[in-house]
Amino acid sequence: MSQRGIAGRGGGLFDDPGQDGLMHRAFLRGGGFSAEEVRSRPVIGIANSASDLNPCNMGLALLVKEVKRGVKAAGGLPLEFPTISISEPFTRPTSLYLRNLMSMDVEEMISVSPIDGVVLMGGCDKTVPAQIMGAISAGKPSVMVTAGPRPVSCHRGNASVTVDDAWPFCDRRRVGEVDDQEWLEFEGNLNVGVGTCNVMGTASTMAAIAEVLGFALPGSSLAEAGSAERRRIAYETGIEAVAAVQRGQAPRGLISMDSLENAFRAVMALGGSTNSVIHLEAFAGRAGLQIGIEKLQTWSRDTPYLTNVLPGGEYTLPDFAEAGGLAGVLVRIRDLLKLDTHTARGTKWRDELSAVSAVENTVIRERTAPEAKRSSLVMLKGNLAPNGAVLKTAGAEDPRFFKHRGRVVVFDGLDDLNDRIDDPELDVNADSILVLRGLGAVGAPGMPEVGHIPIPAKLHRQGVTEMVRLSDARMSGTSTGVVVLHISPEAAVGGPIAYLQDGDEVRLDAETGCLEHFVDDQEFASRKPFRPADPPTRGFAKLHVSHVLQPEYGCDFDFLREPSAPIAQQLTSQYQHKAEG
Predict the structure, then answer these.
(1) Which of 354, 463, 488, 511 is deepest in the core (most CB within 10 A)?
(2) Distance between CA atoms of 368 and 395, rounded to whole angstroms?
(3) Does the pLDDT at position 44 exceed 60?
């Protein structure tokens, strides 16, 4: 799909002296706008994804008012329109399943509406990438207001409860350590306000990426949802939207290999979400590029992990903001960044960071004493993942598993996992490697966040808290552990993971970036692969499985990528005949 060019003011319709102009102005005046307002002003659309079915984005309804004030103050005409909204906890089978649909919604609304530019308003994990993807393809100047994280809470003796506390709490419930009363209490204490997850999960990671790429204002990532600071950011974004139109700052110009490198290095330094890798590749594809695992491996190796923030570290997002926030991280790795890329203000990052001082503190580590010696995300490749996989090392409890060889215990989809994971007779020990397959972009469909396989109950009771886990699914950015994700090609399209059997030996080596099995090639090829359920036959589900790409292409639809973006066969020839059979 070719990028659509930037239209003139109001798409040439609001100032048109003929019938089209008359009708557009008349309809707006019927909605209460004055004759002066509907003439000779830059028209700024506001793409609002607020929804009662998306608590992360609920606060956007109030922020829209501030955006409109800013647009008007800068001499523009703000016109709000809705888009679909995707909630990570409320969407089944997974929010990624609807990301591309939302991107199409955003793209078409921007493209067909008589607007000069747009303010994107999102927050929850897949909302921000969907909006950026749609904006890149639509081609009109775009700036973004993210929802902001929800407040930190408390529960009994824990005065700083964040969303990542849910995972160990649920594990304790599974093995009978949490009674009904505490379960009910925790439900009321976990989230005490609207906004996105209050750790460096996917939502906060994507807010930081939006800032680094030049869609969101510098310094906008961490302000709490509902705060005066978040409202100020919304107001200033409205002003900046008019300025972006005036300088013709199209989103395609913000996406380059340099800006993508900056964004990925920021994720590394932040200890950000594995999901970011998929979304960055999707952005690249919309702009006619592909990052590729080789570049990601190179950038990963020499980018230090500096941020001591939950879920990988000890401190909360408010602590991080007070310690310097994203700018405090970027200034520490500025020698690794391409500083001539642009911010949402139209300035260069070189100038933006020149005014930032790296104040010494315990939340943001110095380069000489990083949070960890290795990168926070490791890109993997090998005969089990010919097209790549990703491992988040940030927050993993037992680094000895970063180099581990063990026998696999294989689960064929979620039902199989739920039926057998806590079976006392499960043939598993602390050195086993747990494998969950059939849950990739095609197989689920949509790669649900289930790759963080729970520790089997019988091992949990023995004190086992960490194991190597492998999956073609994703996991929440709020999760940690030695979990290898996004294995590509996935099982549903005939990737090697479809051929694993219980007892096969697999080796993970994070130092060398290797993920491999030790089954003889002839034996491996002779096996019958696992195949998920029959694919859907109607509706969006059919469209999705027919056109979704593998993680190395950002799980975008093939027909949404810019035609110049590289794309290869998703299946290796070794396995294609098996998958089709």
Answers:
(1) 488
(2) 20
(3) yes
